[in-house]
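Write out this protein's structure.
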Amino acid sequence: MNNKVTIIGVGSVGATIAYTLVAGSSVSEIVLIDVNSEKAVSEALDIKQATPFLSPANVYEGDYSDAAGSDIVIITSGVGRKPGQSRIDLAQTNVNIIKQIAPKILQYAPDAIYLMVANPVDVLTYVFEKITGLPKGQVIGSGTILDTIRLRTRLSELYSINQKQVHAYVLGEHGDSSFVAWSAANIAGVPLNDYGSAMVDTSILPITPYSKEEVEEYVKKSGGKIIAGKGATFYGIAASVAHIVNSLYSGVDSVLALSSMLTGEYGISDVCLSIPCLLGKHGIITTLTPKLAEDELAKLKLSADTLKGVIEKVQY
């Protein structure tokens, strides 16, 4: 890999992703592409001038031809979600934008790994893979990785434990039909349901009582709450995307909750949604199908049907 990343769309999310990559990754070259070239130039200059204290990366504004040789192309272009608006409401508008971008970028970076971040991410990941004809694994959606870190953040607070010790996933759609795979949740290998009883002295690190419904509500409503207060969410998704990029460059395979085209997993096909994926330097190597509880499997299938219903309504 050349450690070259192209970011298409330099709004709050795209610019923050670029900065986060420079702040803590192995990326050496970042191309910023946006219809507002003046903003892209300004963002690139602002980030580049921070590099003496960060990582020595070359950050610049460019056009699609400058994406040639990119290892990874990150797509954030699209209309942002407004307060009270669901991700699905954005579907057709942002599908139209992706339809314009796809042939232009594919002309110059046909071998890149494509990471879709724009919403509704599952629908756009599906559309991008269908209209480009790229193989499964080369097109990735950020999916529920953001929901997953929101979940882990909340559980770490409730259990008074380091966030990195919490292992739990949100699966399905990055949206209202997502769900927590409670059956697979654990802290440092100890199943969540057994963690309290496994502690010899709970008075040292007390566990805050909670309900699963409250936690799922926290995960699903966090994005809307942030948007209502500051207009957009970008730190969490930027950290998530940087983690995906670093995982791709590391050469060490990682398991992440990402959106990809399902081809029979859990009996689901022809839709993109998030289940655990084994990510390697060339993209998604394979998907994983850990055993889910019956109600969780039903929720996953409901999520798939929800997304298929949206895909049927958009023109691509």
